[in-house]
Structures are given as structure tokens and as C-alpha cells.
TrEMBL record:
Residues 6-150 form the DUF2231 domain. This is DUF2231 domain-containing protein. It comes from Mycolicibacterium hodleri. The chain crosses the membrane at residues 12-34, 41-60, 86-107, 119-140. The keyword Magnesium does not apply. The lineage of its organism: Bacteria, Bacillati, Actinomycetota, Actinomycetes, Mycobacteriales. It holds the Pfam family DUF2231. InterPro entries: DUF2231_TM (IPR019251). Keywords: Membrane, Transmembrane, Transmembrane helix. It comes from the Bacteria.
Length: 152
């Protein structure tokens, strides 16, 4: 996908990632540490993580196409593209955490007290993956903005 209604697809799709990835991360952290949130939001979190994982390679492919349209690729644009290529790993990690939260939810529905160690591990992994994903999205976005607007 290269354009949507005549606009570069990357410019439109990137906004979905910029919203969905941090939203998914925050909800995963919330669900990891608060069982009531997990009971209410776990399937939304799985859907958001799945959507983010699907949109990430589409967005990076559209970004590569857009970069290839440039005659000169600045170092900051190259850095943005390289950072963007890493987002798929963070999106996949968000999906794995969402599935772990769903499994934890399922275990909780089968018994009153799942093993405390499992709950703690899932919460900590959700925190680490969530924070690192938010930071990564911010770093990718910052380098992208710098490549477009930095010299102005």
C-alpha cells in the first residue's frame, strides 16, 4: 500500500500506530496489575495488540516506499527508517503479553487463585514491554518528525 486517497499511506497509517501501540501498552500494564481491569478489558487489549501487530509491517512498508521516493535520504531519515524496522518486535511483544493476559484471565476464571508467581511475572513483563514500547514509539516518531520538520 503506497497511497490512500492520493496521500502517502505512511503519513496516515503511522498515526494509527502512534495511538494504538501506547494505548495497548498502557492497558496491558493496567490489566497486569489490576485484576478488575483485566476482567473487563482483556479482550479489547488482545484486539488492539492484534491490530497493532497487523498494521506495523504495513506502515513500515509504506514508509520504505515513501523513503524510496526521495532523491536524497538524510541521516535522520535513515535513522527513522532503521528505528521503524524495530517496531515489529515491540508490536509482537505487545501481542504476546496480551495473549498472556488472556491466559491469566482464563486461569482466574477456572479457579479462585491462580499461582501468585504467574500473576507477578505477567505483570512485570507487561510493565517492561509496555514502557519499552512507548519509549520506542516516541523515539521513532521523534526521528520521523525531525526528518520532516527538523530543518525548518
Amino acid at each position: 500500500m503506497t497511497t490512500i486517497w492520493g496521500l502517502p499511506a505512511h503519513a496516515l497509517l503511522v498515526h494509527a500506530i502512534v495511538v494504538l501501540a501506547p494505548l495497548t501498552a498502557v492497558l496491558e500494564i493496567l490489566c497486569g496489575f489490576w485484576p478488575a481491569a483485566r476482567r473487563r478489558l482483556v479482550w479489547l487489549v488482545v484486539a488492539l495488540a492484534g491490530t497493532t501487530t497487523i498494521l506495523t509491517p504495513i506502515t513500515t512498508d509504506a514508509g520504505e516506499w515513501l523513503k524510496d521516493q526521495r532523491r536524497v535520504v538524510s541521516p535522520i531519515l535513515q535513522e527513522h527508517a532503521e528505528r521503524g524496522d524495530w517496531m515489529i518486535y515491540f508490536s509482537a511483544a505487545l501481542l504476546v503479553v496480551a495473549l498472556a493476559l488472556a491466559a491469566l484471565h482464563w486461569l482466574e476464571s477456572r479457579s479462585d487463585t491462580p499461582r501468585k508467581a504467574i500473576t507477578v511475572v505477567v505483570a512485570i513483563v507487561a510493565l517492561v514491554v509496555g514502557v519499552s514500547s512507548i519509549v520506542t514509539v516516541a523515539r521513532i516518531g521523534h526521528s520521523g518528525a525531525e526528518s520532516v520538520w527538523g530543518g525548518r
